[in-house]
Amino acid sequence: MSTSGDFDCIVIGAGIQGSFTAYQLAKKNKKTLLLEQFVVPHSRGSSHGQTRIIRKAYEQDFYTHMMEEGYKLWAQLEKEAGVKVYRQTGLLIMGPEKNNNYQMIKNTLQRNKVPVVNLTRDNFSQHIPLVNLSEGDEAMVDTTAGVLFADRALKTVQGQFQKLGGVIRDNEKVTDIKPGPVVRVSTTVGIYHAKSLVITAGPWTNKLLAHTGLQLPLEVVKINVCYWKEKVPGSYNVTKRFPCFIQIECLESKEHIYGLPSNEYPGLVKICYHMGSKTDPDQRDLQKDRSDIDILQRYIARCLPGLVPEPAVVESCLYTLTPDHHFVLDYHPAYSNIVIGAGFSGHGFKFGPIIGKLLCELSLGEVPSYDLSPFRMRRFEAKIGSAL
Ligand SMILES: Cc1cc2nc3c(=O)[nH]c(=O)nc-3n(C[C@H](O)[C@H](O)[C@H](O)COP(=O)(O)OP(=O)(O)OC[C@H]3O[C@@H](n4cnc5c(N)ncnc54)[C@H](O)[C@@H]3O)c2cc1C
After folding, report:
1. In a domain, 84, yes or no
2. Mapping DSSP to helix (H, G, I), strand (E, B) and coil, where does residue 78 land?
3. From 51, 54, 66, 191, which residue has the greatest number of CB atoms within 10 Å?
4. What's the whole-model pTM score?
């Protein structure tokens, strides 16, 4: 095996978080290596597919605050690369009037002066035809929200990283990490050394952390990404002003259901259940649970009368969940030159530029731009014990 080079920083995992981290490091003139186990682009992790929702609508102020800058950084990337990655569509949020999460989102939007249109039962169908608002539900639209073109965004940020002199080595799986003042990273192809290491390995995070004596309370679940046929083609697309939507809770489920205007496949609309079934990321396709699809079928039959309540296409994607669904952005408890970004819990894509900035700051020993206390590992102390 060859010894293949020395770097200021090595980033493991070329999903959206690792790619933005590498890009930020390269912007600061750090000699950076981005390692990826698969040939890019690939569809085995969490960052593939054409679309993701971007929004400021959150229960917690800290996410809304981060997204204030998040939007600016996405726009900056668009400008730098001359590529469009965002389309404003608005986000329709529906939920029972008395639902705590719905009210928390409403309050956060109000407190932070995010432009919102509150819909009433009387004017709902005029604004949003072809959606039935459930009995007892309220509805509002976060007008700043929209769609990120995910595959295009990932390719763009990787391209910008390379333009800055960054090195991507794909088809190169990390097989060992030897911590120390200089970290040694072994792959299926070579051995690399760096002053610091960032681990952004998505669903594989614990497999990599095992080399460093740490395990986080992460659960990997498979999401069935479902596309539903429009009865009249074009009725749920952006030209018909159909927005992204989140149903906070409904008759069929306590968990969120979300959808985006038709984009990937003509005449098909992506609508998913915000939870899945436990899986090993290397055996994703052996997980065949479809109970989420049953829930979606019943919801669609009741609330989206313009769609055929039978999925026309089902794809797969992985969530890596933390117990509280907040991210992990922190130093390794035993090695201060190893930084971990993990547990993006099915809502991390939109934060990519901010996560990249924060992980870059941590790896350079700078003061992070945001209060990271919601994201520290300390909150899992009871679960990971002595490692902290
Ligand atoms: C169906 C679905 C819908 C979603 N919708 C939204 C949304 O609307 N809005 C939103 O903001 N977010 C959304 N998300 C969440 C978002 O996509 C994820 O939070 C984000 O993509 C996580 O990125 P990541 O870089 O952490 O992980 P990944 O994309 O999985 O990247 C990790 C990378 O590390 C690599 N790797 C792992 N181990 C090794 C190794 N040993 N050696 C080398 N490389 C390795 C992997 O191959 C992988 O490429 C959604 C996710 C899914 C699945």
Report:
1. no
2. helix
3. 54
4. 0.97
